C-alpha cells in the first residue's frame, strides 16, 4: 500500500476497529512536523512555541486522493498526542493534558505508539520515565529519533541509538515480553530522512 492521502481531523467512533498509530514525545520534539512529513500534507499544527498540541487529533489515511468523500475506506488513523515535559499554560492545565494522554493510551486500541526523542540530545530523563511507564502498561511502542539534521555529528546520533539499544537489550534480559520494538528509526522531517523506513514499518503492521 502507498500513502495515498490523508483527510483532515477525524473522529472515529468508539467501536471503530481501524488500526491506530499514535505519536508521542516531549513538547517541541518535532512531532507535528514529522507527522506532516509522513502525510505529505500540512494537517498537524506546527509551532516554535512548545506545547501547541493540547488535544488528541486523528488523521485518517484514506484509500484514494478523494479525501472529501466520507465513504472512502480509512486504512488507519494517525493520532497526534499532546506532548509531555513542557507546555504553555497553568500547571493544573498541563497536568490535565498529560493525565488525559495517559488515560487515552490505557484505553485506546492502539496498533503501535511511536515514541519520539530528539536526535540532537538523545533520550532525556523524562523520556526514560515515559518509556518505563509504557513498558509497565504493556503498550507496544517504537522509538523514533527526530531532527537528525540538527545533530552536530553523526557520531552523536550513533551514540544515542546505541544507548537506546543497550537499554532495550538489558530490559529484554529481565522481561522477554517487552512491549518495545527493537528497531530505532532516525528521521528528519526537514530532509525526509528515515520516512520511507518508518512507512515500511507502519505498512508491515497493517499486513499482519
From TrEMBL:
Taxonomic superkingdom: Eukaryota
Obligatory cofactor(s): Mg(2+)
Protein name: GTP-binding protein
Lineage: Eukaryota, Sar, Stramenopiles, Ochrophyta, Bacillariophyta
A single MF term (Gene Ontology): GTP binding
Transport found in the keyword field: no
Organism (species): Fistulifera solaris
Record domain EngB-type G: where: 17-208
Signal sequence bounds: none
Amino acid at each position: 500500500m502507498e500513502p495515498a492521502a490523508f483527510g483532515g481531523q477525524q473522529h472515529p467512533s468508539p467501536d471503530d476497529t481501524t488500526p491506530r498509530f499514535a505519536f508521542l514525545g516531549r513538547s517541541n520534539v518535532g512531532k507535528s512536523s514529522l507527522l506532516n512529513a509522513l502525510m505529505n500534507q500540512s494537517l498537524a499544527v506546527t509551532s516554535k512555541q512548545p506545547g501547541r498540541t493540547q488535544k488528541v487529533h486523528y488523521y485518517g489515511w484514506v484509500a484514494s486522493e478523494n479525501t472529501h468523500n466520507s465513504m472512502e475506506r480509512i486504512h488507519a488513523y494517525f493520532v497526534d498526542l499532546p506532548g509531555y515535559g513542557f507546555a504553555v499554560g497553568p500547571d493544573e492545565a498541563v497536568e490535565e493534558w498529560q493525565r488525559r494522554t495517559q488515560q487515552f493510551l490505557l484505553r485506546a486500541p492502539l496498533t503501535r505508539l511511536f515514541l519520539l526523542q530528539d536526535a540532537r540530545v538523545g533520550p532525556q530523563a523524562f523520556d526514560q520515565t515515559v518509556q518505563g511507564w509504557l513498558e509497565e502498561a504493556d503498550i507496544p511502542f517504537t522509538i523514533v529519533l527526530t531532527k537528525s539534521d540538527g545533530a552536530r555529528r553523526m557520531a552523536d546520533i550513533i551514540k544515542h541509538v546505541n544507548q537506546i539499544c543497550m537499554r532495550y537489550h538489558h530490559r529484554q534480559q529481565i522481561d522477554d515480553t517487552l512491549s518495545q520494538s527493537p528497531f530505532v528509526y532516525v528521521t528528519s522531517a526537514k530532509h525526509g530522512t528515515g520516512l520511507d523506513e518508518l512507512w515500511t514499518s507502519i505498512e508491515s503492521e497493517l499486513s499482519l
